[in-house]
Amino acid sequence: MTKEYLNGELVPEGLAAALAFAASQETRIGNVIDLADVGRAEGDPKDPGESSGPIPIVIASKMVGDTETLDAVDLVPYLEKYAAKPDRKRIHVTLTDADSFIAYLNEQKEKTTRIFATEADIDARSFCFEAPIDFIEGTGGAASWITHTVKLELETTPEFNTWTSRDGAFFGQVDFAEFLDDNLIDITDPPGADILEVVQNLQVKTDVAFRSNIRLDNGDVQLLYEETSEQSGAGAKGSIDVPTKFTLNIPVFRGTEPTPIDARFRYRLDRDNGRVRFGYRLSQVDRLVEAVVNVTAERIEKETAVPIFKGTFSRVGRK
């Protein structure tokens, strides 16, 4: 344990001993005095973190050359350091899913607890709910140092990150087939068997030259090709049917329910070399994300019975 000194003398360990030591210094450093009411107008509320008894301050004397100086020494750190437990909760908790946030709030909340929701940063997809557990009381009520907070930082899921990271990009034929195959479980419409057939056709038909495309009555696109490999019968014609849209069903944030996300297949056909590149475009992702955040906020407010304010708060002064 670090040794503590006051006026050049070692402060003994233990709360009682430390206080006795302070009292013993009266002839040289003055009395232990109560400053709880100094500077406070009559009737003003006390800070809820203040002790109901005196605030122990000693006036310490020291010589600097031939000049004596007096310093006010706050003994509160000594009191808390040697006490059985702190005088208030001092902890800032960060959680990453709504279930944990709700459970923690319901366990720790006080009558003054409030929740602050940051404005949605759609581009960064960074969303936060922060609750000061020991927040200030209403008009005429007590102040607070706000030393106990819990924050929910919503994290997007790996599935959502996978699909949004390639949104709008184009793949080569084989790469696109592999991407669909790896993430087939996320697609709910068309059925997995239909998507798997597209994947297999794209993986097999690599020695072909795509010549044209036809839009079918069901909305799908039919890509017409000619075989270029002698082994497959050069000049032989065939086609691959590709759906124009599909639907994902994935959770946007950890701890949230899966959400349907519509998407459209995209392709670029180069008739000069017969190559085709594939991609997809997700529909209104930003609006969907904001909607999920709003649903999460409604759930938190309902299940905790703690009001939510849009904005942020900051602690000022002593922590």
Notable traits:
single chain; 319 residues; alpha+beta; Signal recognition particle alu RNA binding heterodimer, srp9/1; 3 domains; 5-stranded mixed sheet; 5-stranded antiparallel sheet; elongated
Describe the structure.
Helix 6 (173-182) packs antiparallel against helix 7. The strands form five sheets. This protein has a five-stranded mixed beta sheet with strand order 6-9-8-7-18, with helices on one face. Strands 10-17-16-15-11 form a five-stranded antiparallel beta sheet. Strands 3-4-5 form a three-stranded antiparallel beta sheet. It is elongated, with a radius of gyration of 34 Å. Strand 12 (208-215) and strand 13 (221-227) form a beta hairpin. It folds into three domains: 5-82, no CATH class; 91-158 and 292-310, Signal recognition particle alu RNA binding heterodimer, srp9/1 (2-Layer Sandwich); 165-283, no CATH class. The chain contains eight helices and 18 strands. The two termini are 23 Å apart. It is of the alpha+beta class.
Concise summary:
This protein has 319 residues and is α+β, with helices and mostly antiparallel strands. It contains 8 helices and 18 strands.
Tally of distinct domains: 3
Based on helices, strands and strand pairing, what is the structural class? alpha+beta
The largest sheet is: 5 strands, mixed
* Average of the residue pLDDT scores: 75
Strand order of the largest sheet: 6-9-8-7-18
Secondary structure tally, helices: 8
Q: List low-confidence stretches.
A: 25-54
